[in-house]
Amino acid sequence: MAKKIEPRKVEFKISAPDAGWVGIAGDFNGWKPDALAAQKDKKGVWKATLTVPTGTYEYKFVLDGSWITDPSCSRRAINSFGTENSVLVVK
Does the domain formed by 8-90 have CATH 3.40.50.620? Predict the structure, then answer.
């Protein structure tokens, strides 16, 4: 019998104390930053949690409309625009 693979919870976080809004856009939500809005804590760290199936996902943070890679993620992939996306591997 094959082992059932359960989806995993993934936490995204970025320190951006001066940002007014942060979202996360990626393969997992159709690249719609409004679909995963982060919440800011007292220290200015924005966090969001998402449950995804195992796999490899590309994503970016969106800070007040500016798309940036995750500074804490060393995996990168070149996208169709010639810029980089962060890469998340969920096992």
Answer: no
- Give CA–CA dist 27/85, Å, rounded: 10
Give the Å distances, CA to CA, from 81 to 10, 23, 49, 84, 85.
Answer: 26, 20, 27, 8, 10
pLDDT at residue 2 in the model: 63
pTM metric for this prediction: 0.92
Encode the chain in three state secondary structure.
CCCCCCCEEEEEEEECCCCCCEEEEEHHHCCCHHHCECEECCCCEEEEEEEECCEEEEEEEEECCEEECCCCCCCEEECCCCCEEEEEEEC
